[in-house]
DNA sequence: ATAGGGTTAG
């Protein structure tokens, strides 16, 4: 092993990847292939020039490409001047380097420059320029290159045609991309995949599936694109369905497929499938893939298995900011704010730089635990110490923090002073606080903004109606319902799901369609008797219907999470934790009931809310009733 | 030497 080398009168710092090489006897043009940093290469080159060593274009083009990567094109330019008339190989090397660098526009400049030298672009030239255009979303120059392709007789080159389709679709010129696609005499699987990916990016999942089903041949990537597309569009069930079909066809999921399907499992809380995919991933040798580990952390967190997530996180050889952020957000979601903050300071200690997402997790942790001053400090520190400009999520967290804690006036002023436009989430957080702290005036102010910002979101009207109902202002509650009807807003039906033996069972309120509905209602009846003895009083004010109290109780007892819990208790062995997922916030009455039930049946009940986790155990919940 | 898919918050 050499730590430094001195030869030929030139000091050279060894590049890390070259430390295993023996130092060469003399400084020859070949050396331009053995070193990788512009600094080393420039020194070698300077020496070669000084000793009048003759140089071929090939090593020089290598030198230029590395110089361009810096990008220090000036140096490459000097060599270019010396050469007089460099051939296309030289140009292509430089173009490639620029296209892959942080300043792809250099490639486009070069493309115009090379034509002054009477050099004819070839396939590679076009491909590198097109790559640069794609990076810059520069459709104008892309069209010019396209024109050149026609002139240069490269029009039927499949690679270039695919790049053109990609570029047009990427820049939003979907019609042009489709025209190109139709004009192509031959297409390969990549051509189809490009279109599928771009359609997914535009949110046109149906269009993407249409292409997918028309493909003559599908590769693993085609399947993966489609599966990832469904996850991206919030259709995890379809993603899993497709994944099953892919397995049926005997195709082997790769690392990217695994990431996509794990994200779907995270969305659905499908722990069984998630574990199966985890096992598959390990057997396939994907254990070291950092994307997979990160997604696994998120999957375990969202399936309610915080310990599994933590074990995985602790066992990782390398971690990125995504790993840390996912784990911190996971702890916050599970109400472990203290541990989340400890992890954050560990992260800072080892020199990992937090990003905006990390701070969303941190601020969440603070707001879930009512740590107001801590939250303020982090909010200030994020810009002061880390140069992160708060985005709407961060403002939302802060409003949530103040509102939950009852600092409604401060929350309101905070929104008014925000330097960016507020959104529904921000006012919705204030509205939520108004409900907890029974401030009708402020709630009415919030709803004024919400009916403009997010008029079709039913959740806000429901909260306001609840606030009125809880203060016995029935006419106002009725007015809100009327308002909803007028706006054509319907209450999103609440549903809960529970997975038993790998089968996902879904319940909606008052669900009698389940084959075992009879047994489920009986089970709930038994539980009800027991918790009533423990002091449970039904909280009928959460029922927003104009009916008498007895009827309200009946509605209350058919809430989807109660049905899912009763079913879970029937179908799973004693002591096994029960995991339930709900699409809305867990209802207050169910929350009170679940606490008592966890004690009576001596079971851990984990409920994933639309916001966070509630883990009921021995009569209490990890949210400490602060939610 | 040239083309397409992935994770954290909401």
From TrEMBL:
Pfam families: DYW_deaminase (PF14432), E_motif (PF20431), Eplus_motif (PF20430), PPR (PF01535), PPR_1 (PF12854), PPR_2 (PF13041). One of its GO terms (molecular function) is RNA binding. It comes from the Eukaryota. PANTHER family: PENTATRICOPEPTIDE REPEAT-CONTAINING PROTEIN. Belongs to the PPR family. PCMP-H subfamily. PPR repeats lie at residues 188-218, 219-253, 289-319, 320-354. This is DYW domain-containing protein. Keywords: Repeat. It comes from Carya illinoinensis. Residues 535-627 form the DYW domain. InterPro entries: DYW_dom, E2_motif, E_motif, PPR_At4g14850-like_plant, PPR_rpt. One of its GO terms (biological process) is RNA modification. Coiled coil: none annotated. PROSITE patterns: PPR (PS51375).
């Amino acid at each position: 092993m050499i730590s430094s080398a001195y030869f030929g009168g030139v000091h050279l710092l060894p590049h890390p990847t070259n430390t295993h090489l023996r130092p060469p006897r003399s400084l020859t043009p070949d050396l331009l292939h053995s070193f990788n940093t512009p600094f080393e290469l420039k020194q070698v080159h300077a020496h070669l020039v000084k000793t009048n060593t003759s140089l071929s274009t090939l090593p020089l083009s290598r030198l230029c490409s590395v110089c361009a990567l810096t990008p220090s094109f000036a140096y490459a330019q000097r060599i270019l001047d010396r050469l007089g008339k460099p051939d296309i190989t030289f140009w292509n090397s430089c173009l490639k380097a620029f296209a892959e660098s942080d300043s792809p526009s250099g490639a486009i400049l070069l493309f115009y420059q090379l034509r002054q030298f009477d050099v004819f672009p070839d396939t590679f030239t076009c491909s590198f320029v097109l790559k640069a255009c794609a990076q810059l979303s520069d459709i104008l120059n892309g069209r010019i290159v396209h024109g050149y392709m026609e002139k240069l007789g490269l029009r039927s080159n499949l690679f270039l045609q695919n790049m053109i389709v990609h570029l047009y679709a990427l820049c939003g010129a979907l019609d042009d991309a489709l025209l190109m696609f139709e004009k192509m005499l031959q297409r390969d699987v990549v051509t189809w995949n490009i279109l599928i990916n771009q359609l997914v990016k535009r949110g046109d999942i149906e269009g993407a599936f249409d292409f997918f089903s028309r493909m003559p041949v599908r590769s693993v990537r085609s399947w993966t694109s489609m599966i990832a597309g469904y996850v991206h569009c919030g259709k995890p069930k379809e993603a899993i369905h497709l994944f099953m079909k892919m397995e049926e066809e005997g195709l082997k999921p790769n690392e990217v497929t695994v990431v996509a399907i794990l994200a779907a499992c995270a969305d659905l809380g499908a722990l069984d499938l998630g574990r199966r995919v985890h096992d598959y991933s390990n057997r396939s040798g994907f254990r070291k893939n950092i994307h997979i580990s990160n997604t696994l952390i998120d999957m375990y967190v969202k399936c309610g298995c915080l310990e599994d997530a933590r074990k995985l996180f602790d066992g990782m050889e390398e971690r990125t900011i995504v790993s840390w952020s996912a784990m911190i957000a996971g702890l916050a979601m599970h109400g472990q704010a203290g541990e989340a903050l400890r992890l954050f300071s560990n992260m800072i200690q080892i020199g990992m730089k937090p990003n905006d997402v990390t701070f969303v997790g941190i601020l969440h942790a603070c707001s879930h635990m009512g740590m107001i001053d801590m939250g303020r400090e982090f909010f200030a520190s994020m810009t002061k110490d880390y140069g992160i400009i708060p985005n709407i999520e961060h403002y939302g967290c802060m409003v949530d923090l103040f509102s939950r804690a009852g600092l409604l006036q401060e929350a309101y002023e905070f929104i008014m002073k925000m330097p960016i436009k507020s959104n529904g989430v921000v006012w919705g957080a204030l509205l939520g606080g108004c409900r907890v702290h029974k401030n009708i005036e402020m709630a009415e102010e919030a709803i004024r903004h919400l009916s403009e910002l997010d008029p079709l979101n039913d959740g806000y009207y429901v909260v306001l109606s609840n606030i009125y109902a809880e203060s016995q202002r029935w006419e106002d509650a009725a007015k809100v319902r009327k308002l909803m009807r007028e706006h054509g807003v319907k209450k999103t039906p609440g549903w809960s799901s529970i997975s038993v033996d790998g089968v996902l069972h879904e319940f909606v309120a008052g669900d009698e369609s389940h084959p075992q509905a009879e047994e489920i209602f009986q089970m709930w009846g038994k539980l009800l008797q027991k918790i009533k003895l423990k002091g449970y009083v039904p909280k009928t004010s959460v029922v927003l219907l104009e009916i008498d109290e007895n009827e309200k109780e009946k509605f209350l007892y058919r809430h989807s999470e109660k049905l899912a819990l009763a079913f879970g208790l029937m179908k799973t062995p004693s002591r096994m934790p029960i995991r339930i997922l709900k699409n809305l916030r867990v209802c207050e009455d169910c929350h009170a009931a679940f606490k008592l039930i966890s004690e009576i049946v001596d079971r851990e009940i984990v409920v994933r809310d639309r916001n966070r986790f509630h883990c009921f155990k021995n009569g209490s919940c990890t949210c400490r009733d602060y939610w």
